[in-house]
Amino acid sequence: MTVYDSDKAGNRYKGQIYFQKLCIMLPYLLRSASFYEQRPDLVDSVDEFTCELAQNTPQQSNGGDCGIFTLKTIEFLHARLPLTFTQDNMEFFRKKYAYEVYNKKLSI
C-alpha cells in the first residue's frame, strides 16, 4: 500500500506509526466488509500489508487543507497525472469544489 501523506513534514515518525497500524488492520477490515466476497479474484488473507510512504507528495503548510489535498491527490492519481499541485492552488480548488457542489456538477 502506498500512502500519500500531505502533512509528513510535521511529524513523519508519528505518521509512520499510524500507517503501520493501518497496514496491520486493513486485511481484517476488508474481510469484515465482505470485500473478498465481492472480489473472488483476490486472495482472502489476513497477512499484513506492506506499507510505503510516497515520495514527493505535495505538502500542505497548514493544518486545515488535508481534505482538499486528499481529494486532489485522488483525482490526479485517477487521471494518471503527476502530483504537481501546491499549497498555493488550494484556495482555487476550494472555490472550485464549492461552485461544483452548489451547482451539482462535480468534475475531475
TrEMBL record:
SUPFAM superfamilies the record matches: Cysteine proteinases
Which of UniProt's keywords are assigned here? Answer: Hydrolase, Protease, Thiol protease
In terms of Pfam families, this protein maps to: Peptidase_C48
Q: Which residues form the Ubiquitin-like protease family profile domain?
A: 1-77
Instruction: Return the PROSITE patterns for the record.
Output: ULP_PROTEASE (PS50600)
By sequence similarity, the record places it as follows: Belongs to the peptidase C48 family.
* PANTHER family documented for this protein: GH15225P-RELATED, SENTRIN/SUMO-SPECIFIC PROTEASE
Which protein is depicted? Uncharacterized protein LOC132799546
The lineage, from the top, is: Eukaryota, Viridiplantae, Streptophyta, Embryophyta, Tracheophyta
Name of the gene this protein is made from: LOC132799546
